[in-house]
Hints:
Structural class of chain A: mainly alpha
Order of helices and strands of chain A: HHHHHHHH
Oligomer: heterodimer
Helix content of chain B: over 70%
Radius of gyration of chain A: 22 Å
Number of strands of chain A: 0
Number of domains of chain A: 2
Order of helices and strands of chain B: HHHHHHHH
Amino acid sequence: MTKKHWEKIKPYIWLASFAVFSVVSFWFGFDPGKTIYQSFTKSFIEMITFIPFLFIIVGLFDVWFPKEKIEKHIGKESGIKGMFLVIVLAMLQAGPLYGAFPVAYVLHKKGASIKNIFIYLGAFSTLKIPMLGIEIGYLGLRFTLARTLVALPLFIAVGYFMEWYLKNRNFKVNEV
Amino acid sequence: MVNNAFIFIAVSIILSVISFLLDKDKTILGFKKGFKMFKNIVIPFLNILILVSLLLFIVPPQMIVKYLGAGSGAIGFAIAAVVGSITLIPAFISYPIASGLLKQGASYATVAVFMTTLMMVGVVTLPLEIKYFGKKVAILRNLLNLLAAIIIGILIGIIL
Lengths: 176, 160
């Protein structure tokens, strides 16, 4: 088997072993195996009833609100409008926080304020739309709303604090 | 959980219809993009569900209640904050875990602080962050975000 084949098969190994394990468990009446299978089915149903719809929503957002269009206005707008724009831009992203650092560099280069750079990072870590969708699906709308509404003023405060603290300290974002 | 699924189905149907009436091609492109993203995560997602099912079987609920439940107080809260700050877990993995923890008796405050530190604080990625912002700024950002995450956890615990 070549390496290329192995890479193709690798993601399915867990799934295949689990399928075999479950079949064997039911065949021989192995109770722990049955319980684990039932728990898996429950979480599978939980997932499949909302994740595909979430991605329809995310895909539509992607075509109607392209990130590039908003990026063009960053740095030119200041005040509440500038803050609003970085938050919206952050919400349209996906992926882990370290993916936001290169964008922070771009924002800095385009002339975004220190405050808005850190507000972007805050919004990126807590308000990304795909993540909010998964959060609503798993922890409920109440939890998600409460968490977002508490987080929003806090990361805006972090942005103001950073700007106040770094204003005369030669702040810059490096290209890595 | 059924109610949540209804929200997603309803919202996606409404948005699709509006989008379709406005621009047919754009809508189809959106569906394609969404399907591609779904395809990319579905296998890793299934693997995680297997892992969570295994873990929830191995770790007894009493233990989760003891260490992360409402009665665990500051210690459970601190454990969640530390684990959340250090580890780097993608959202689609951490949410099934969080939901499992809640069902097994963990408190809202603990789960909230775990999720928020996971999102906002990155000890593992700190070296990378230092490269971008410098040592002082990167550490300061993480400390401020840790503080924010603790406030979020406490407030969620009070609200819910």
